[in-house]
Amino acid sequence: MTPPPLGRSAGKPGGRPAGGPKPKGTGRRTLVAGNWKMNLNHLEAIALVQKVAYDLKPDELERVETVLFPPFIDMRSVQTTIDGDKLALGYGAQDLSPFDSGAHTGDVGGPMLARLGCTYVIVGHSERRTDHHETDAVVAAKAAAAYRNGLTPIVCIGEHEDVRVAGTHVEHCLAQLDGSLAGVTPKQAETIVIAYEPVWAIGTGRTASAQDAQDMCAAVRGRLATLFTPEIAAGIRVLYGGSVKAANAAELFTMPDVDGGLVGGASLVAEEFTAIVRSGPPA
Ligand SMILES: O=C[C@H](O)COP(=O)(O)O
C-alpha cells in the first residue's frame, strides 16, 4: 500500500519525533490559526493550502491543530482543496454576521459557513473593532451567532499601545473579555478559544515578550475561572497573536498559559507558517 502523502489524514500518528518539543502537560492541544486577512485570490489560496499541507507531516498536524482563515471569497476553493485531498487542516472564517439570514447586504451568515464545513470563526479582531467600530456587544452577538450554528468562536481581545504604556492593559483586556463573552454559557465556554492580541504588536514586527504574553494569558485564564469554573478555564485555549514568526513561536508556545498563536503576516508564507506549526509543543 502506498503511504499517504505528507500532510494528509493518516490515522493515528506515531510518537513524538526524536528531538521534538516536550509535552506541556496542560491537556490543551496547541492551536495555530493562520489569519490571511484580506490577502490572496482564490488561485493563490489553493496554492498556499497545498504548500502548507504537503510540507507538514501527519504527526505534526496531529500534535498541533492547524486552521486556516481565508477571506470569504476563497473559502469554497479552500474547502474543496482540503476536503478533496483529505488534508488534515481545518478552516474557518475571519468574521460572521450576527444575523443568520435575510436582508443584510454584504454579510455572511453562520449557516452558510457551517454548511461549507467551517469549524471556527474569528470574532472581535482588533481590525474589525477599529475598521467597523465593533463593540464588545457586537462581538458577543457574533459569538452567539457562531454557537447557534455549531461554530467555535475565537474571541479576540487586546490593548492599544497607549493603554499598555499607562499600565492598565490587564484591566482593559479583562473588561473586553467580560463584554465579549456576555451570554456565553458554561457549556459553550468549554470549546471557546480566546486570542490575546496586543494591537501594538499586530503587523508591526514588535512581538510581546513571551513573559508578557504569558502574564496576560494567565490573567485571562483567571478571569475565565471566575466567569465560568476553574475546571472549564483550565480546558480553554488562550492564544497569543501579534508578529508571531518562526523565530519566536517556540518560546511563546512553551509558556504554560499560551496555547498557540493567531498568526497574520507569517501565515501567508508557507515555509514560515509550517515552521511556526512545528514549534508547537504537544499537550
Ligand atoms: O490575526 C492575526 C493577528 O492580527 C496578528 O497579525 P500579525 O501576525 O501579522 O502581526
UniProtKB/TrEMBL annotation:
Its EC number is 5.3.1.1. SUPFAM superfamilies: Triosephosphate isomerase (TIM). The active site is at 125 (electrophile), 197 (proton acceptor). It comes from the Bacteria. Residues 19-28 have a biased composition (Low complexity). It catalyses: D-glyceraldehyde 3-phosphate = dihydroxyacetone phosphate. It is found in: Cytoplasm. Substrate binds at residues 35-37, 203, 243, 264-265. Involved in the gluconeogenesis. Catalyzes stereospecifically the conversion of dihydroxyacetone phosphate (DHAP) to D-glyceraldehyde-3-phosphate (G3P). Belongs to the triosephosphate isomerase family. This is Triosephosphate isomerase. It comes from Pseudofrankia asymbiotica. The gene is tpiA.
